[in-house]
């Protein structure tokens, strides 16, 4: 049985390398936020950094991939996700996001992963305050510095460009749409792009695109100097849409109540009832497991760790969620109690949750 060794390996890598690095980087980036003169934007920046603790716990499944440089991978994922979370936090709070503003600030993600460009534009040109005093540009440069260190970036570059284009398009559409039009706009956009995945609905495709997990994992893979295009193709087919969809649907599950009072779209609102949600998450898990024997030995553990992180979260234990959490864990299959025990140990040591989730 490989469950216990995989858990021990994950615990060692996460607690020994990922968590200390994230703590160090949050402290470092927090100092950069002090140069933001506009108090509201500074509060968004600080809030976004705090959320990165949980983001990195989720994406730390990369530690189970063969031949990944764990320290470098954690660093590049943190740098990239710091930008994603900062933009998402601003857009979630800002009620008048224009298409021009959104295209401009989300172009920072392209700059952050473009090793051939040194020119950064004023991303906040169309924002009321006109500036965040260069904070986003600092995040972009920090990420680019890490990208330059990736020995196999050329192998993943085209995949990153493809997924990032979809991701940015979706963010612009999501945050520029009126509440009354957003569902129609998402479905129209999906119908124009979702030609390969007939087994999922149009908005489930949007949900999978909306997960940054695929981009994070490609960056992690690029730390392996011996990475091949075939390996990248394998992970792309295994993770998208199924594992990306699982990550996003579980995120929506946890943030259900919070989403009622924010501008962030929660895709699980589009399910007709809790039973349909349970059926679909079970289906996504089943499809993800179908790749188990065709990829690498620890692939199944990646799915189990993701499910455990979300299903054992304190927010997943309230009211009817407690029943659904049991459905999710049951769908995870054999050995889930070992993985949930692992995550609970990590959580008990305050290494998993952001401050606002405790």
TrEMBL record:
InterPro entries: YtpB-like. It comes from the Bacteria. This is Tetraprenyl-beta-curcumene synthase. It comes from Ruminiclostridium sufflavum DSM 19573.
């Amino acid at each position: 049985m490989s469950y216990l060794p995989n858990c021990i390996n994950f615990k060692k890598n996460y607690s020994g390398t990922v968590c200390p690095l994230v703590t160090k980087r949050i402290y470092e980036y927090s100092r950069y936020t002090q140069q933001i003169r506009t108090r509201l934007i500074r509060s968004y920046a600080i809030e976004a950094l705090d959320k990165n603790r949980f983001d990195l716990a989720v994406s730390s499944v990369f530690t189970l991939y063969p031949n990944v440089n764990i320290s470098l991978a954690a660093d590049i994922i943190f740098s990239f996700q710091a930008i994603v979370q900062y933009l998402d936090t601003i857009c979630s709070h800002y009620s008048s996001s224009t298409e021009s503003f959104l295209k401009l600030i989300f172009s920072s993600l392209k700059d952050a992963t473009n090793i051939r460009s040194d020119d950064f534009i004023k991303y906040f040109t169309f924002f009321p305050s006109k500036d965040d005093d260069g904070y986003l540009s600092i995040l972009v440069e920090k990420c680019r510095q890490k990208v330059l260190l990736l020995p196999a970036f050329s192998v993943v570059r085209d995949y990153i460009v493809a997924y990032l284009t979809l991701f940015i398009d979706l963010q612009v559409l999501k945050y520029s749409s009126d509440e009354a039009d957003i569902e129609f706009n998402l479905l129209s956009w999906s119908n124009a792009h979702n030609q390969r995945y007939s087994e999922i609905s149009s908005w489930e495709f949007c949900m999978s695109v909306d997960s940054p997990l695929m981009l994070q994992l490609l960056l992690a893979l690029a730390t392996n100097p011996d990475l091949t295009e075939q390996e990248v193709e394998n992970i792309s087919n295994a993770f998208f849409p199924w594992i990306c969809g699982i990550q996003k649907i579980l995120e929506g599950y946890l943030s259900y109540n919070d989403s009622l009072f924010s501008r962030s779209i929660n895709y699980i609102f589009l399910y007709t009832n809790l039973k349909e949600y349970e059926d679909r998450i079970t289906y996504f898990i089943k499809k993800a497991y179908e790749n188990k024997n065709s990829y690498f030995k620890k692939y199944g553990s990646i799915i189990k760790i993701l499910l455990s992180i979300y299903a054992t979260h304190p927010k997943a234990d309230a009211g009817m969620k407690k029943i659904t959490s049991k459905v999710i864990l049951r769908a995870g299959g054999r050995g889930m109690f070992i993985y949930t025990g692992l995550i609970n140990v990590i959580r008990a040591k305050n290494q998993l949750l952001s401050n606002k989730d405790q």
